[in-house]
Write a structure and sequence with these properties.
Layout (H helix, E strand, L loop, with lengths): L2 H13 L17 H7 L4 E5 L5 H8 L3 E6 L2 H14 L3 E5 L11 E7 L10 H11 E13 L17 H8 L3 E11 L10 E10 L1 H4 L1 H14 L4 H7 L11 H8 L16 H12 L3 H12 L23 H4 L2
Parallel strand pairs: 1-2, 1-4, 2-3, 4-5
Antiparallel strand pairs: 5-7, 6-7
Helix pairs in contact: 3-4, 8-12, 11-12
């Protein structure tokens, strides 16, 4: 950890006479945690930078097996104390996330404000550890400060503000934003930069990036369901592109985060075909085959499944698609 980070946190914990005095103390669990608990059965959770322990204790009460990680001994002391008071068990680990090796994978990983307090030089190590720790079907909840207005600077004590696009770029292509919420605070001390927008993210792994062959298999299954002979089509078009090609705008929407999620931002129409080819090559798939499968899948003149303006989601087997996955 950087000397600056350590000194700042040590001074704050030395100043606080109780956990409620900590600037980052909060009584209510972080946004989205209750909804995660509603949607999935309790499993393993990693609370990165557990602070005063509010989220760790809440999740333990909800039946989760909690690992609370922090590099401040006082933070872990507060967390253990509060867990004992509530009659729950929390496994407290003193470690720096940028140096820690996860012993297992976690169904849920939570960061309530650690990333925005880290030295940017340590961000790659943070990200690498997160990807090792998060289960294949895991959920990642992140709280991070945004600028309250364009160009707003950081206070002398931080935290560092970053906009939504920057956060998305940082975690792409491995993670895809599922839900996003924000709340504005206009009057904060000058030492933390005055006002800010507090943003909360819910991420999941981007299956289009992690499992591209499976995605194309789901497209093939859908084509068979619609009695479209994709094998004959691929044999016929082995040396050529299938026509008529999709309009660039429709192809861009198909590849973007609102549909298949092959890219975490909506591509420019002019670059959509090149983006699809690059994704196919990285996946070890023939770019022409990938383009022809998606053309058949989305063309109003062919299989007519994911047509522009009126996708037939109720007759589609592409579960990696955001439109189908979140219905």
């Amino acid at each position: 950890m950087s000397t600056h980070e350590k000194k700042t946190f040590l001074a704050t914990y030395d100043w606080a006479s109780r956990w409620q005095d900590l600037p980052w103390a909060h009584d209510e669990p972080t946004l989205f945690l209750a909804e995660v608990c509603r949607r999935r059965s309790p499993g393993r959770v990693l609370d990165i930078g557990c602070g005063a322990g509010t989220d760790s204790v809440f999740l333990a009460q909800m039946g989760w097996e909690v690992t609370a990680l922090d590099f401040m001994p006082r933070a872990l002391e507060y967390t253990r104390q509060r867990a004992a008071e509530q009659g729950v068990v929390v496994h407290a680990v003193e470690a720096d996330i940028a140096e820690w090796e996860p012993p297992s994978r976690y169904d849920l990983v939570l960061d309530h404000g650690l990333l925005h307090n880290m030295d940017p030089q340590r961000h790659p190590a943070y990200r690498a550890c997160l990807m090792k720790a998060l289960a294949e079907d895991g959920d990642f909840i992140l709280l991070h400060w945004h600028p309250l207005f364009p160009g707003q600077g950081n206070g002398r004590m931080g935290p560092t503000r970053r906009d939504r696009e920057t956060i998305g770029d940082f975690f792409a292509p491995d993670l895809q934003e599922r839900y996003f919420a924000r709340e504005e605070f206009e009057d904060l001390p000058d030492m933390v930069g005055g006002g800010m927008t507090q943003a909360c993210y819910w991420f999941r792994r981007n299956q289009a990036h992690a499992k591209p062959r499976e995605l194309l298999d789901q497209v093939r299954t859908t084509l068979r369901r619609h009695a479209y002979d994709h094998e004959a089509m691929l044999a016929r078009t082995a040396e050529a592109a299938l026509g008529p090609a999709l309009e660039p705008g429709h192809l861009a929407r198909l590849l973007g985060p609102g549909r298949l999620g092959i890219h975490h931002r909506l591509p420019e129409p002019a670059g959509a075909a090149g983006l699809l080819a690059a994704w196919a090559r990285e996946a070890g798939v023939d770019p022409r085959e990938a383009a022809n499968l998606l053309t058949a899948f989305a063309s109003p003149a062919l299989a007519k499944v994911c047509v522009a303006g009126a996708p037939r989601c109720d007759q589609c087997n592409v579960t990696y698609c955001k439109r189908l996955r979140y219905r």
